[in-house]
Amino acid sequence: MHRTFEETLTELIRPEVEGTGCVLWGLTAPTKGKKRIIRIYIDGEDGVSIDRCAEVSRLVGLMLEVEDVIPGAYTLEVSSPGLDRRFFSTAQMRDYVGRKMTARAYEPIEGRRKFTGELTGCEGDAFTLDIDGEPVSLAWTDVKEVRLVHEF
User: Fold this and answer.
1) What angle do CA 81, 5, 64 make, to 5 degrees?
2) CATH of the domain at 28
3) pLDDT tens-place string over residues 41-100
4) Domain limits at 100?
5) What is the 3-state secondary structure (H, E, C) of the chain?
C-alpha cells in the first residue's frame, strides 16, 4: 500500500509530539511555490499553550533536520486545532456527535460540494450529517475537509 508524504511524516512526528504529553491532532504539508509548509496541529487535555507549541516546534524541527525527509525548503508551523478544528479522521469526529460540521467534497455529490449540518454518527470511514432534517451520509474518501462549526 502506497503511503502519502503526510502519512509518512505523521508517523515520524507522532512520537516526538506524544513525548511532550500532547496529542498529534493532524498535519498538513502543502507546497507553496518552491517551499513546503508543514502545519502540525497538537492538542492536550487542558488545551495547548504557546510555550507547548514552541517546545513541539523545536523538538520536531530538530528531528526533521536529522531525518532529512523533507526535500528543499520548508516552514514548520505548530498550533492547536482551534475552535473550528479540522478533522483528520472519522475517529476524531466521534466525540463531536450532536455538533454542527461543514464538509467539503472533492467532487459534487448530488449537485453540491459543501454540506453543513449536525453530526449524527460515524461508522467506519463514513459519517452522517443531519441537514435540515435529512440524513446525508458521506464517505471520508469523498471529502476534502471536515471542520467543526463553532457556535457562540
Assistant:
1) 75
2) 3.30.300.70
3) 999 988 899 999 999 999 999 999 998 888 888 999 999 999 899 999 999 999 999 999
4) 90-148
5) CCCCHHHHHHHHHHHHHHCCCCEEEEEECCEECCEEEEEEEEECCCCCCHHHHHHHHHHHHHHHHHHCCCCCCEEEEEECCCCCCECCCHHHHHHHCCCEEEEEEEEEECCEEEEEEEEEEEECCEEEEEECCEEEEEEHHHEEEEEECCCC
* 85 found inside a domain: no
What region, left, alpha or beta, does residue 12 occupy, with left being phi > 0 and alpha being psi -120 to 50 degrees?
alpha
User: Whose grid coordinates read 464538509?
Assistant: 103
**For residue 75, what is its C-alpha cell?**
516552514
| Structural domains in the chain (count) | 2
Where b means 16+ CB within 10 Å and e means fewer, 24-41 reads: bbbbebeeeeeebebebb
Cell 476524531 maps to which residue?
92
pLDDT at res. 1:
61
Contacts of 2 (CB under 8 A, 6+ apart): none
* Number of neighbours of residue 126 by Cβ within 10 angstroms: 15
